[in-house]
Request: fold
Amino acid sequence: MAESNLVDILAVFPDLEPAADAIEHLRSLGVHDDCMNVISGIPVTEAMLGRPSQWTNVPRIALGGALLGFGAGVFLAFVSPYLYPYPIQVSTQAFIPGAPTVVVLFELTMLGMLLSTFLGVFLDSFFPNYRPMKYVPEVSDGKICILVECSYVEEKKIMDALKKLGAESVKPAEAQHL
Amino acid sequence: MAEHNKHTDHAEAHFREKHLMLDPLPRGQMNEMVMESMHTTSWKFWVVFAGLSVVVAYGLFYSWGVMIAEGLGVAGVNRPSYWGIFLVNTVFWIGISHAGTFISAILRVFKAEFRRPFTRAAELMTTFGLIQAGFSILMHMGRVWLSYWLMPYPNQRMLWPNLHSPLTWDLLAITTYLLSSTMYLFLPLIPDVAMARDRSSGWRKTFYKILALGFRGTEGEWTHLRNAMNIFAFAIIPVMFSVHTIVSWDFAAATRPGWNSTIFGPYFVVGALHSGMGAVVMVLVVVRGTMKNMKYFIRPEHFEAIGRLMLIISMTWAYFFFNDYMVQWYGGDKWTKQLLHFHEAGPMGWMWFVMLIFNVAIPWAVLWNARWRATPWIVFSVGLLINVGMWFERYIIIPVSLSINRMPFTWRLYQPGIEIPLGIGTLAFFILLYMTASKLIPLIPVWEVQEGQMAHELKKFGRETVVTVSELE
Reply:
C-alpha cells in the first residue's frame, strides 16, 4: 500500500558536475542514497558522484566458479583414470602423473573462474531483462541521468530542485520498452 | 608574449590533431559516426563479400565434403610427414588469436591508453582466428564426426581421454581460450550494443535489443561489468600464454630432433604475438581505409604505437629463434645437425631464409623509423610480410622437419593436396566473418574512447605543453 505513494523522477544532466551537485542537494533534501540511481553512458565511479560504494558479487561468484573448475580438474586428473574397468598402467609411467595434472587443473580452474565471472554479471545485473524499464536514450549520448524515488508529496519539491540544479529535463519516470 | 602564445596555441592544435584522446567530440556525434560506419556499405564491399563467399563455399565446405567422402588420402599427409598444412594452419590461427588478448588485456592491465579505439577490432580477431584454428584441427582429424570422442564424458566404451597427452591438453586449453575470449569480447560490447539499440529501428533494433540484454548503464550494471572486465583482463593473460605453450608442447614433448626443446613454449608465444600484431595492424589499415569515419578514430599515432610493439616483438622472436638454434647446433647430435642443415640448404631452404628476412630483417629495417611505422601502407606491408614469414616458420617446424628422420629410407618431401583449398577457405572465412561483424557490431568501443578522452588533457610545465592522463578508476 505504501509503495503506491512512491513515484520515480528522471532528471537528465548534461555533465558530471551538475549531476554530482544535484545528488548532494537531494541528500540535503532528505532523499536517501538508496532512493537514487545514476544512469550513464560511461562507467562513472562512485567517488566522482559522491555516492556510496556499489556492492558486487562478481568476484565471489568468480571464486566459486574457480573452485568448481578446480573440482572438475581433480575429477578428470585423479578420478577418471580409475573409471576404466581395468585401470591402465603403462610401463613405469606414473598412474597419476604430476606435471600433466597441473596443466589439467590450471585450465579447468581458469575455465570455471571465467565462465562464472561472465555468469556473475548476468546474475548480479539481472540480465537478460527485456521488460519495460525506466530509461532515457540520451544516456548513451553522454548525458547523466539521475533516477530518484520519492514519495508523491515530495515530487514537486524534488522536481523543482532538480531543475534549479541544471537538469536539462525532469519528468516522472515511466517504464518503457528499450 | 604574443609570439609565445601563438606558439603554444600551435603546439596545442598539433597535439589535438595527432592524438585521438585530446581531440574529443560530443558523445552523440561519435555514436553517429560509428553507426554510420556500420550502415554505409558500398558496392565494392558486396563484390568482395560475394567473391569470398564463393571461395568459402568451394575452398572450405565443398573441399571438406570431398575429404570426408574420400578420406584423408586426398590430403598430402603421408609417411613421414603425417602432420601437414592443417596443423601449420592450426598453429598459425592460434597465433593470430593472441593479438586480441595481448592488445585488449595486457594493454588494459598496463593502462596503455593508445589501445582504446581498437581493442574490439583485435578481440574480434581472437574469436574468429580461433574458429579457423578449430576448423583446421577438425580437418586434421579426418574422421571429424568422431571428434566428440575427445570430450570427457561417461560412455558405453568406458573410455576416458588420455590426460597424459598434450593433444588432450590442447582441447582443454583451446576450448578455455575460445570461450574466454568470446566472453571477453562480449562484455565490453554490451554498452555499445545498448547505444546501437537506442539508435536503430527494424530488425537491427531487435538484434541489438537482444544483444544488449536490457543494459541501461546503471551504477550497479557498470560496477558488475567493470569488475568482470578486470577479472577477465588479468585471468585471460595466463590462459593466452598457456594455449600457445601447450601447442608448443605438442612438438616439444616428442623426442624428435628439432622439436625436443625446452624453449619452445615462450618461443611459440612470442611467435604468436609476432604474427598476431602483424595481423592487427593489417586489419586496422583496412578498416581505416574502407569504413566511413574511421580516420577520426584510428590515426597514425596508433600505427606508430603498434609498430613499436611489433619491433620489440620481432627482436624478442629473433632472440628466441637464435637461442633455440644455437643450443641445438651446439649439442652436436648427428640427426639434429642434419635437420638444421636440411632447413637451410635442403629443397625448402629458400623458405628458411625468407622466414628470417620477413620476420627479422624487414621489421628491423623499417620499424625503427617513427615516420615509417606511422604510415599505414608501410606498416600494412610489414605486417603482411611478418605473417607470411610466421606461416613459413610453422611450415618449417612441422612438415619440413618431419621430412627427414632417423630412418633415411622413409625420407620424402611433403606435397600438400586438398590442404591448399581448405587453407585458403579458412582464410576467406576469417575475412568474411570479419566483414560481416563490421556491419553488425560497433567496431569502435565508443564508451572506452569517451572515457579515455575524459582522462586526457594538456598541461603546461613551464613553457612546454605536455599530455597528462588522470587515473579515473
